[in-house]
Amino acid sequence: LFYSMKKRNAFLILFGLGALFSCTKPAAQVEEEVQKPNVVLIYTDDVGYGDISAYGGKVPTPNIDKLVEGGLKFTNAYATAATCTPSRYAMLTGEYAWRAKGRGVAPGDASALIRPGVETLPSVMQRAGYRTAAIGKWHLGLGGDEGPDWNGEINPGPLEIGFDYSFIIPATGDRVPTVFVEDHHVVGLDPNDPIEVNYREKVGDRPTGKDNPELLKMMWSHGHNHTIVNGVSRIGFMAGGEAALWRDEDFAQTFVDKATDFVVEESEKPFFMYFSTHDIHVPRIAHERFQGASELGPRGDVILQLDWTVGEIMKLLQEKGLEENTIVIFTSDNGPVLDDGYVDQAREFFEYEEVGGGLSGGKYSALEAGTRVPFIVKWPKSIQGGKESNALFSQVDLLASFASVNQVSFDSAQAVDTENHWPALIGADSKGRYALVQEALYTNLAYVRNDGYKLIPGNEGPKMVPWGPQIETGFDAQDQLFDLNSDPTEKVDLAESKPEILKEMKDELINIMIK
Ligand code: NG6
Ligand code: CA
């Protein structure tokens, strides 16, 4: 399957698998002009490898499971990092985030981490003739060196790096400012009530979770005790912007509505939608109709809400007759966490072992649950449903893969880590990458190879995530070597018994780091 662009919105597909693997010997081909597929990238937040029922999760997710039934389920696909900002950075730029400082979890008033001119996945899609949108959580900073001007034009942002339209939570649901930004502006802002944001000291007279916990509808457990908005205290202080404040309960519906508007827009062009849910990040405040519905506390309820969201997107595609030729990718930005700063019963109803699908660790961790995530690709037109792939795939590869299939070049001097694994993405190659790098807390790295060996280089990091989540980091002062095939929970350190492999892997990792 190989594409070349003929008209703005048409592909020339050469059928015959031979073309996938060999340029010199094209197999028997039938040339056919076809519409380029739309692409919907559903990027969820903190959904663990074991959180979806098709991956063994105990909260029923029938709509997401349908993607598996009709698509390809990956068992060895990875986010590049165990937290949000670096994962998103790498997926959108094709460059691992740890290559430069300052790409860790971004505060809510951070400057744009991806500056105009940098190669990005949405720019590739624009050049391939797509119209593009970013809807949902952003968390990659906004504005120039001075940070975002919440009361004026917020620029640069998504529109400057390849998106034609954006409707976003600027950072996270648990960080101020608690307002939506559409294109360059805060939605619904009254100019007479300007927004002030401060991450160091209190501004304005809204109460805080620290001083007035009796005002909260969900108590904080660690951090998250600054300004209270909608009965939830946040990270950071915020004054003003009263008319623009969001209601957490409405996130899911709002994003579905914006996605609908974008999809139904009249256009000659196919679309690429980066649809980034707030679920299942904290604060886990589902819409009233989902509250209590899972009987597994707020974390269960937001998983139900996430599944509903996916159902709505799929229904929309069906109603518009777009399902057949839309590539839907479902994945997560990092692994699971139970107590991530609010008292929401997650620990009473869930265990790390289950939400990580039996893998060790979780969000923030160098162990597998930190970055191995659910990854599903559905494309009825070209992917046979109900199959599983254990190809090694990294989210950083979406950029080169989509560039390649669209025959669009990209700046490989900047997007240094992305590799074309289009064949793996559509189930035509069962191997995928040779190896990938995982980024954990404090930018400590780990290295996984497709033969199942994993290296966690010795580092000074703590054994447990040092604030409340009770997650094992996998860090140790000594180098550790695991064989994920025989020891998927990373319990048996082979560093001493297999010194040659250890050495080889350390050399390989260093070569990637100095690239
Ligand atoms: C941590 C927050 C956590 C979450 C995380 C980012 C505290 C104590 N913890 O610093 O609640 O917001 O950052 O999550 O403040 S992520 O999925 O966006 O990376
Ligand atoms: Ca996340």
TrEMBL record:
What CDD domains does the record point to? ARS_like (cd16143)
The name this protein carries in UniProt is Arylsulfatase A
| Annotated GO MF terms | hydrolase activity
What's the family? Belongs to the sulfatase family.
For the keyword Signal, the answer is yes
PANTHER family given for it? N-ACETYLGALACTOSAMINE-6-O-SULFATASE, SULFATASE
The record's SUPFAM superfamilies line, in alphabetical order, gives:
Alkaline phosphatase-like
Q: Does the keyword rRNA processing apply?
A: no
